[in-house]
Amino acid sequence: MSDTVLRLIGVTQQYGTGATAVSALSGVDLDVQRGELVAVMGPSGSGKSTLLAIAGGLAIPTTGEVVVEGAYLSEQSPRELARLRRRSLGFVFQDFNLIPTLTALENVTLPLELDGFRARAARRAGRDALAAVGLEGKASSYPDDLSGGQQQRVAIARAVVGGRRLILADEPTGALDSVTGEFVLKMLRARVDAGAAGILVTHEARHAAFADRIVFLRDGRMVDQTRRAGAESLLTGA
Ligand SMILES: Nc1ncnc2c1ncn2[C@@H]1O[C@H](COP(=O)(O)OP(=O)(O)O)[C@@H](O)[C@H]1O
Ligand SMILES: [Mg+2]
């Protein structure tokens, strides 16, 4: 089995037509391997969120192909696509996106229950995922009773529960203070090291340093890729 979890091939995304058309992504090629965390950086409007939405099958590119664990998304029926999203993908957003009327554990187990897991198996997997982010004691808490950092850790647990192998995080630390943000990134890094693949959109170089590779977007084009050794010298100006 190939270790390439995500492959974007010649991905272009255009919004609108004619004079008002916006080219959000142009000819983007990107491979992400198992155990690899790729940071995506770039100015506001450069296409970072569009890239994640396309990678996660939430948006269909104008041209190009998205391949997740060998499956071409363009060849999947809507039902297969929904199933693949539930089973293989985890999203983490800046604003946590937890459901306020569900406990931390219920938020984490929801994707499993939607996928037909028995309640007991779902709870077991949910508890494991919460324990992995250090929140085993907060299973019964509601989002409002948790700090921002704790809520984001619940969101990470939800993103990886049941062995999801591709984690897509869009500025996950944007609403957190720097210490909490770094803690959340360490959790993300740990999950990737445990065998997932991840994309982290961030505008903070300090956070991108958690990644193995940094990809820069400008006006929808990928302008540079830096392996970690190179990235560190770039970020420190050495
Ligand atoms: N649904 C949409 N309709 C029209 N234009 C959009 C839409 N979503 C994003 N865009 C445009 O596409 C470009 C890239 O946006 P986005 O991917 O959100 O960038 P980033 O996340 O880097 O800030 C921007 O010019 C934005 O205005
Ligand atoms: Mg964005």
UniProtKB/TrEMBL annotation:
Keywords: ATP-binding, Nucleotide-binding, Transport. InterPro entries: AAA+_ATPase, ABC_transporter-like_ATP-bd, ABC_transporter-like_CS, ABC_transpr_LolD-like, MacB-like_ATP-bd, P-loop_NTPase. One of its GO terms (molecular function) is ATP hydrolysis activity. One of its GO terms (cellular component) is plasma membrane. Residues 6-238 form the ABC transporter domain. PANTHER family: ABC TRANSPORTER RELATED, IMPORT ATP-BINDING PROTEIN. This is Putative ABC transport system ATP-binding protein. It comes from Microbacterium kyungheense. The lineage of its organism: Bacteria, Bacillati, Actinomycetota, Actinomycetes, Micrococcales.
